[in-house]
Amino acid sequence: MTDAWSDRQRRSIMNLCVNSKLGTVFLSSKECSNEAHTSENIFEYVDKCIEEVGPENVVQVVTDNASNNMGASKLLKEKRPTIFWISCATHTINLMLEAIGGLTRYKKIIDQAKKLTVFIYSHHKSLALMRKYTKKRNIIRPGVTRFASAFLTLQSLSEKRVQLRHMFTSKEWEDCKLAKTVKGTSSYATVVSASFWTGVIICLRVFTPLVKVLRMVDADWKPSMGFIYGELQRVKKEIINALNDNKNAYGPIIDIISKKSSKRLDTCLHLTTYILNPYYFYNNPDVRDDLEANDAVVDFIGVLFP
């Protein structure tokens, strides 16, 4: 698994880790400040580490979806055709969530929620009042990714809806100087708006199935490869049901999930582990007759034993 980042001194660092059934182990780190992160440089670094570990011990290389990583994957395929290069599931699912959150219907609610929480946390008086009415419980909760944090904030707002309404309609808030400001009146309008809370509920119904998959693939407690494809199929069904089978509502979301999954989370490796996973194979008879998955098994074997 590779990851590139910058430290506090703005040095460009590339890390390599190995993941197996025993967990994740740090393998190597390289400073790349004087080098461009080209496909060739990434490939050479990864290939050198594959040689150290032993090519026969490597099933796949996992990176994010940046174009230079995708270029490196082609170089690896030429030299080591039996090793897969797979997009990071956490990164891909987060891209799905961000794209769905960018749709007008959901972006409006997320933006309103952000403005409300930023306003509350920007002032000592509003923060103290909020903690008083919520019994010292916070709204903002950190998640595994930036969008997961936004989702958790929406979830937290929904849980504290009654307390926030009591706060913004209280005598204490009415007497507070912040209540007379532009941002104060805007926050008040948001909290007492029925359409805002309805929008929050719809957002949670749409995002919750994907966030569950995000948590699964980001956790270390169980290998997730055999569940990714099957869970994304379940996500699509849950979202369609959540939006009352309204194609105009669910269509753009399903398109985003399918587009982001294509050639990233629906490779022959994903489909093979899906059809060989007893959780799906024995629970759903249709899985055995899935032509695409059966063809993927043949392709997978063809890669491992050309």
Question: How would you describe this structure to a colleague?
Answer:
This protein is mainly alpha-helical and 306 residues long. It has two domains: 86 residues, 2-Layer Sandwich (Nucleotidyltransferase, domain 5); 175 residues, no CATH class. The chain is built from 15 helices and five strands. The longest helix is centred in the last third of the chain and has 25 residues. The protein is globular. The mean pLDDT is 90.
Topology of helices and strands:
Elements: E1 2-6, E2 12-20, E3 23-31, H1 39-53, E4 60-63, H2 67-79, E5 84-87, H3 89-101, H4 104-122, H5 124-133, H6 146-159, H7 161-168, H8 171-175, H9 182-191, H10 194-218, H11 225-242, H12 247-261, H13 268-275, H14 278-281, H15 291-304
Parallel strand pairs: 4-5
Antiparallel strand pairs: 1-2, 2-3
Brief descriptors of the model:
single chain; 306 residues; mainly alpha; Nucleotidyltransferase, domain 5; three-stranded antiparallel beta sheet; 15 helices; 5 strands
Q: Which structural class should the secondary elements be placed in?
A: mainly alpha
- Quick one: overall form? globular
Going across the biggest sheet, name each strand in turn: 1-2-3
Instruction: Let me know the number of strands.
Output: 5
Query: What amount of the residues lies in strands?
Result: 5-15%
Helix content: 55-70%
Radius of gyration: 23 Å
Q: How many structurally independent domains?
A: 2
| Mean pLDDT rating | 90
> Could you give a short account of the major beta sheet?
3 strands, antiparallel
Terminal CA distance: 25 Å
Low-pLDDT runs of 5+ residues are none
Helix-strand string? EEEHEHEHHHHHHHHHHHHH
Query: Number of helical runs?
Result: 15
